[in-house]
Amino acid sequence: MSSSPDTVAREVRRRRTFAIISHPDAGKSTMTEALALHARMISEAGAVHGKAGRKATVSDWMEMEKARGISVSSTALQFNYTRTEAQPDTEPTVINLVDTPGHADFSEDTYRVLTAVDAAVMLIDAAKGLEPQTLKLFQVCRHRGIPVITVVNKWDRPGQTPLELIDEIAERIGLVPTPLYVPVGIAGDFRGLYDRRSGRYIKFSRTAGGAKIAPEELLDAHTAANVEGEAWTAAREESELLSEMGQDHDQELFLAGETSPMIFTSAMLNFGVRQLLDALVELAPAPAGRTAVDGTVRAVTDPFSAVVFKVQAGMDSSHRDRLAYMRIVSGEFERGMVVTHAQTGRPFATKYAQAVFGRDRSTVDTAYPGDVVGLVNATALAPGDTLYNEPPIEYPPIGSFAPEHFATLRARTAGKYKQFRKAMDQLESEGVVQVLRNGTRGDASPVLAAVGPMQFEVVTARMLAEFTVETDLEPLGYSLARRTDEASSAELDRQRGVEVFTRTDGALLALFSDKWRLQYIEKEHPDVTLEPLVAAAD
Ligand code: G4P
């Protein structure tokens, strides 16, 4: 029995789906664990993994899953959270934290994941400020119009001043930070937060090893001034300066991606974590409808529809199947429902739907817009695909990025060729890399095209681990790709430093050694079609 649109609307209103974007080491894992602690999914941070430090790994989460009977995975973490100041009968907010790939190399994966969220938390290390990966990820958020909450983490360690960090963000990325709180105490002496909207002071106390939720004391301005003296005055002054510069929170500007509410935290000490959760509940947008290829908009209360944003072969040797993760866009999802795969028009049975994945997979029976559901053995599904219940709908494809790294790959031993082909097909359909072919090179050594070289490493490692194929990767001297057409390829093929390929989606791509080669050909052969592809940061 399907629920009424009213039920769906209610469920949507209480959902928040977001991702944390950060440069490696800014504290994403620590923050994820701190959020789980505040949502009371775990009782002690650091306790679940039983090793030095607080770094939670996927297997740690799996242990936690077993111990607490909750659903956690490296793909999406769902938990309920009730704001401290909420009315007693308020339904908890359902928070979906979608994981972005942790590796340092920017890849299309991250971009795809960011198509599945409604907001992002940009986590910055107080001492390091903006780092390359943060910048790139932020650009993706801007491109997709995703509102961003900025979190300055590690305030318990020496770093820059709040105003320096604010200026850096405003200048380098053009996003105006509007702090909700100003820290009391300089970086390295984190005492509490001045709540700019209520004028009150939240004073934190440390717990042993930062394992528990940090006790908070709520003080009025007068008491705060007595307790903190200079540090309190400095925070008040900074706040006033921000107000004079117009840097107060404005919900409309935040949703339009022009400003970013900012919070200072120490994920390690659990300071400011509750404030971050409260901000997500209060300010981040609930899931909204989506525009289809034909320009129509599917409202969240319309019949079921979802977009596949990630496809992955079972990482775990005991589950060698292919998992497709979908973000629900509209309607109620019920396990067992037979939906339609828009790209093939074929029915798709959802008997094996799972909330998340780990060694112990947990089944999901119902889900609503904003939720992430994994489908097992989804061999026909690819990133960007649409699933729906009548009436039909198809969402725009996620799109491939302009590759910047190229290499040929071949099986080390000829006897492994069949396996090699099979593995190539599998990895290609998951979207791990783009694969380019042309008649001259033949099929034994296809050209791999990637946004980041880390994608190549993933291919060779998985070839070996999952298909027992040893491979040789040889970088190619190309650095640029342009889309071309049949009529232009003959001319391009005659040029030095250029090679034309067909990508699996049928697109013809011309590869160039460098931008000078490209400019030369554009000048000498103005009739040749050479269109830019979507760049990673477009
Ligand atoms: P990541 O997932 O973004 O890569 O970062 P992760 O949480 O693993 O944190 C990276 C390092 O920063 C870890 O230290 C972690 O303990 C530390 N860290 C995270 N948040 C805070 C914070 O608020 N304050 C301070 N002072 N440190 C923080 P590590 O030395 O690499 O590991 P470990 O020995 O602590 O486990």
From TrEMBL:
Annotated keywords: Cytoplasm, GTP-binding, Nucleotide-binding, Protein biosynthesis
Xref: InterPro entries: EF-G-like_DII, EFG_III/V, G_TR_CS, P-loop_NTPase, PrfC, RF3_C, RF3_dom_3_sf, RF3_GTP-bd
UniProt cross-references to Pfam families, sorted A to Z: EF-G_D2, GTP_EFTU, RF3_C
Residue sites binding GTP per the record: D99, T100, P101, G102, H103
SUPFAM superfamilies: EF-G C-terminal domain-like, P-loop containing nucleoside triphosphate hydrolases, Translation proteins
All copies of domain Tr-type G, residue ranges: 13-288
Signal peptide span: none
Domain of life where this protein originates: Bacteria
Localization per Swiss-Prot or TrEMBL: Cytoplasm
Entries under Gene3D superfamilies matching the protein: P-loop containing nucleotide triphosphate hydrolases, Peptide chain release factor 3, domain III, Translation factors
Function (record text): Increases the formation of ribosomal termination complexes and stimulates activities of RF-1 and RF-2. It binds guanine nucleotides and has strong preference for UGA stop codons. It may interact directly with the ribosome. The stimulation of RF-1 and RF-2 is significantly reduced by GTP and GDP, but not by GMP.
Family listed: Belongs to the TRAFAC class translation factor GTPase superfamily. Classic translation factor GTPase family. PrfC subfamily.
NCBIfam families: prfC (TIGR00503), PRK00741.1 (NF001964), small_GTP (TIGR00231)
This protein's name: Peptide chain release factor 3
Native source species: Gordonia defluvii
Higher taxonomy: Bacteria, Bacillati, Actinomycetota, Actinomycetes, Mycobacteriales
The gene coding this protein: prfC
